[in-house]
């Protein structure tokens, strides 16, 4: 008994960990109370509660920020936790990401019929793990945060139990993730063995005072830590899980994972290597250099050949990780600030992008082929514009946070590693290509009536039908339409089914009218391409293309039409998702035009211990 | 040399006006019932307002100063030392004017059949980006606008272009973007070198031009900058994107890309390479001159072999841009002045040619020279306009092309005689291919298909008239332009001379004697 009493429990300064407490407490409360709410209301209540908790976490994080900037950084809980500008900024970032994810997830859960508080609860737990990683001042606490973050994410990846891909992704993530965690723990053990402490500041102090005669143990430990972190931030060659998991996981979860897991892991990565091993930078900088180079190039290179938008964004996130590594490689205060700026800008871009992808995924969350984005601008101009801007921002278009972020990290790198900066920018050039590919595809009209909503009059539309060209509404130059037909045109085959709609209904086949009416249910009629096609067809009869006998297609119309509905009808954008996309867009563009505040913000986000 | 400042932020408004117009057009997408004519006229009105403002700037521009005028400087990203710093000098003034003149013409004369709203919005955004690039004197800001030009031009090519537009657009984008990757890194390295020397992190051109570089470092930086600009211009080995992009782009796109966007490359060389790296510029001048001469000859010879009018003009552009580079790297007042003037003139001439070719295509649906014949009979006005533009491009005295080509060649002859001699062959070739094309298309006995070609409508005559008037006016009386260019060019040459401790024959009129060495101070006094 007396023995137990002597074990000193550290004094816990709760205000130091208040954002984590808010998120975790909110999660527990929501889990407990969520089941008491009536089933119909549960989803909405869970969303509102999560958004409120995230907003509260954002509030306390901002309070922490002002506290740190006015009173200085400090450590707490027996030096296991540090509160400095860095951790406060990451807390702000994670809270924002959580808030946005809650909004996006709401629409997703309803659409997929898996309403419930569980996803929100798991996300909040995971987010608190990221916060713990960011403010950890002890390797053990870093590991604690890493596990809290990861375990919740494994479950989240499997969340949509109706999709086999979701389960597969989760299993893959779980197995590889637990390996990497084991490697990470081993690294901690070796570092502890070499230095006699797991506290980050004390490791730095030990290394400052002692020169290790045989530093093999320490170097091995550091390498294993690099592996563990590199896995979490998806740096090549530890990125193998990323495309599969990003593709398989539910889309809102992918956005969350890309933003929060990366932010948390990078926060710890930066802190551990700069605070603890800052003096050994010459040992680890070459490793990070190599990692950054392959991550940048492989991420950009492989993204080019993807046909699935989620997979493409997964590789693009690998490329982004390479950019953040530039800041780490620089190993300077400017580098830290640049990396954080990058993570901040990236969070909003990636959550916004995945919010659009979620919305466009349609029921079943499976419509992610790049071809299904064709002509989106005509069907849903606002959504297409938002996605285009977010993609261009990721590519590093001027006057968005994307280019400022790239500018900052490249500026940090150029200080001493000009070749790395050049490689980074070349990879950005490659990356720009695949972002633009999607953007352009959205603005390439689907042939014939799919392009109808932008056309002024049905008569012009009918001419477009007749010409069979890419919605060329011109009347005075028929040759223009011929010449401008895309030679590569994968879409040209679509002309036939579209014409079939128009034609069949025009001839008044009641059965098909009924089929089309069913299709139109729930769609916005005035924007629906089928309706407009009908209007056009009633003015001028489109000539059926050669080789397509109408009679033989009578029975096939409905199936063709259904397939068409999947790719060519507008999707409903849930209001909360629209809000989330709007917020992401606003942050990306407004802070792109007016970079001052965020730059200053990131500039003050310094690490407490920086040798 | 003190920069003239004005209470009204002319340049900021000049940059933001088209952007605002473009945004308004884009947002009008929600008003679906808006007729396309309203959108098109709104676009023309916005670009005309921009032109009015640009003319006001040109009128208020002081001819006595060689420095930047209308400077407005606001801190933009304080932590990074990036400023919203705009200013015009004699070089950029006319490029701004060129852009401001051409965009209304493009919007009025090269309308698209489909989706006018997006086209107008992209065009206005492109105008903002072009003007912004020409007036930015903060390197990061310049880079922002320089990059921004890519996005609308990519969408314009891929959205409204011809058969192989996707290929052309991607090639265009990847080439230029890869080039500018080097530019960004180069800018950052320059800024860091400046920071090490002075302790201030800034991207202002006027501050950075006093940075010193080691000779090897300077040459690498020069090459990094020049890579981006040579792709954009395009200069000889980096030109392969341009014939595809010029040919596959819609008429308006070809006009803007060839006439305005390409000038960003040579403008960048003048404004940034020569100011920041005078010594490497002089050291590597023989290389650049050789590339320029190769470009002139290659462009001209390939143009001779073209059977497609649009490709022919595209290759002739390559040759003309070679002349610009030749003039710049001659490092004489005449050469550089001629280069600047040629940028302006080439912009006007190429735009006119592409516009006319676009109209021919609208009527005949072909660019093939072999399918066009005797258009002079059914379309005399078009033939007349084409004649003037074509003769200006050849460099007939009395039209604007002559003045600039003469200045370039005479300026080059003073310092680099043999390059000038070889380049002169390019002028001869230009006469060959352009006259041949003209003869084939407009002369000869008209056949049935060509006999029904419509002549230019009154609206089209109104659109082409300003270009023709300016082409003739600048051929007869280039003085107002030269008056404004010369002080800046003199300052630039003086700066290069001072930095490299060499001196070039300064006076345009002293000709041959000026090549013989006279002490520098004496020379300053005489010129």
Would you mind describing this structure in some detail?
The complex is a heterodimer of chains A (611) and B (527). Chain A has 611 residues and is mostly helical. Chain A has helices spanning 2-6, 18-34, 39-71, 85-112, 118-135, 139-157, 164-195, 200-209, 216-233, 241-248, 251-276, 281-304, 309-330, 333-360, 376-379, 381-395, 401-414, 418-443, 458-467, 478-483, 495-506, 510-520, 529-537, 550-553, 557-568, 575-593, 596-603, and strands at 74-76, 81-83. Helix content of chain A is 72%, strand content 1%. With 527 residues, chain B is mostly helical. Chain B has a domain at 287-507. In chain B, helix 3 (90-109) runs antiparallel to helix 4 (116-135). Chain B is globular.
Essential attributes:
heterodimer; A: 611 residues; mainly alpha; two-stranded antiparallel sheet; 27 helices; 1% strand; B: 527 residues; two-stranded antiparallel ribbon; 22 helices
User: How many helices of chain B in DSSP terms?
Assistant: 22
Question: Which sheet architecture does the biggest sheet of chain A show?
Answer: 2 strands, antiparallel
- Work out the count of structural domains of chain A: 2
* Class derived from helix and strand content of chain B: mainly alpha
N to C succession of SSEs of chain B: HHEEHHHHHHHHHHHHHHHHHHHH
Lateral strand order in the biggest sheet of chain A: 1-2
Shape of chain A: globular
Tally of extended strands of chain B?
2
Structural class of chain A: mainly alpha
Helix content of chain B: over 70%
Q: Can you summarize the main beta sheet of chain B?
A: 2 strands, antiparallel
Q: What strand order characterises the main sheet of chain B? A: 1-2
Principal-axis shape of chain B equals globular
Mean pLDDT of chain B: 86
Quote the distance from N terminus to C terminus of chain B.
Answer: 17 Å
The low-confidence parts of chain B are 507-527
Kindly state the mean pLDDT of chain A as a whole number? 79
Order of helices and strands of chain A: HHHEEHHHHHHHHHHHHHHHHHHHHHHHH
Multimer state:
heterodimer
Number of H- or I-type helical stretches of chain A: 27
